[in-house]
## 1
Amino acid sequence: MPKPTVSAGYAKALFDLAVAHGADAGALMRRVGLPDDALADPDARLSVDRFKRLMREGKALSGEPALALHFGTAISFEELTIVGLICHAAETMVEAFEQMNRYGRLVIEVDGVSDGERFKIVRRDGAIWIEDTRSNPDEFPELTESTLGRFIVTTNRIFSDPPMYEAAEVTYPAPAHADAYEELLGVPVTFGAGRNAMRVHEILLTQRIAPRR
């Protein structure tokens, strides 16, 4: 089977963020093993393994262990890819969610996307959750971090009364930078849980984004 890939435009945004946090651009490219023009075409593809290296070398060279959280919270999805624009143009939150599942693989291909829907809305313990169902999530917890940031912070900036996202759970143990989670995400996070999920307000199921055309 072909190895999963990520868009070069998405990788370039991560690269630029690492440099903004203090990573040396040349050293980062060398450590990841990328030629100078590897990120020039936003529509080109890189392997997800190479993207993982970019994330981890970016953290090391910048000295910012929470780089993945910043990647999710500081850069809106519509700035990164046309997929973000498609989601933003949806009429409702549920429709935007469906578009993310449909087109998300254009940004990054991961287990649970190619084989079905990556994100699912479920009811559990009297609450509504969005679960990230990708396989082996703890092999790349930074992807979970950036996903939490992009879903929670971007949405809660737009819909803050009441906040659309209320809490999160992740499957991995609390990292050394655990304090940065609540600071950056603005919601309580439970570590070592049975799934990667975000608890959402009931209003998400009916919330409109764009006016009806």
## 2
Amino acid sequence: MLAIETEALTRRFDGRPAVEDLTLSVPEGAFYGFLGPNGAGKSTTIKMLTGLLAPTSGRARVLGHDLATDALAVKRQVGVVPDGLGLFERLSGVEQLRIHARLSGLARKEAARRAEELLAALELSEHAGKLVASYSHGMKKKLALGCALIHGPRLLFLDEPFEGIDAVAVTGIRRMLQDLVARRAMTIFLTSHVLEVVERLVTHVGIVRQGRLAAQGTLEEVRGQASLEDVFIRTVGEEREQKALSWLTPGEPA
């Protein structure tokens, strides 16, 4: 079964395509890396797949549901860590998690139990009672991940989850995500510019360029004998000659 299946999915803004004729196939239980340069349409795609943005044309099925007719059923079964995070900064960390759980329909006691377990797993227990406004960027990223997981989603969307956080936090999050996929607890759809981390994580890859799918398959099929970074640069055509700055070049006049 496919967790995500799209047919010619397109979204235009003021007549200009942000995503065009996108056809994705994400197997259930996969760790799918959705890669592309800035402005390639990755975040727009996630918004469409989570029911936050209507496509201009095309179709999308998520977890067996057609988004055009059954978006609410999809939203109940997915978790999302958006690039902008969207946390309530005047709540404490534990309050943030409990509210997310309650809004997802969990009973008060179960919400409290899951919040405590997540805080421990994310190494945030000692900060549970502190306001989110006082959290570091990395702590906020981990808390947002906790909010996305607390209701037990079948499909998890992660939009740049490693941006701006240190290597220790990345390692902890990476191990948790790998364990979730290894236990077939969920399918994960990830966007990230940290290709070294992506290469260690994903089982499947899709590469987009200017809103269009340029490559898709298992990691081995897409990568071949090269590194993922080499394949990515070759696919999106972003490799350019580096020009030196004249005022920082020895022998050049200031």
## 3
Amino acid sequence: MDDSESATLALANDDLLVGNLTGALKLDTAFDTLSINAGELRKLMRVKEGGMDVQVTLWDASVVSGQLQDPSLQCRLASGVTVSIPVALVEEYNQPTPAPAAGMVDKIKAAVAQLNADDWKTRDRAEQELTSMGPVVISTLKELRASQPPEAQQ
């Protein structure tokens, strides 16, 4: 994996951690409390002078703001160590290849299953569907590739 695909967490003390946020986050918004899988985050920024207030960009580019219930985030570093980071110390988290939500993963898997269909039209339709979903499918496709027959891998 090259550096452009690595998730990074920039801290207020100018440290830069390479690793992924893990676990479930509870975000209190003006309307409701959202449960967010940390793997589905594209970006998380602490709002300046906002204490626990953050702005979150999800895998599908939707943006929500609110206050995290937990005062710390869990970050699994590239070295394999998991560390707890106080939200007050976080400047910005960036994940260039976030995982899609479970419903989207199901759609991706269904389309991948069609890539090995006997009918070429069905295979082409599945390829077009995956392409139209955009780059969010990449991480799921990488996970599924090894278990697919040669036609679907191609």
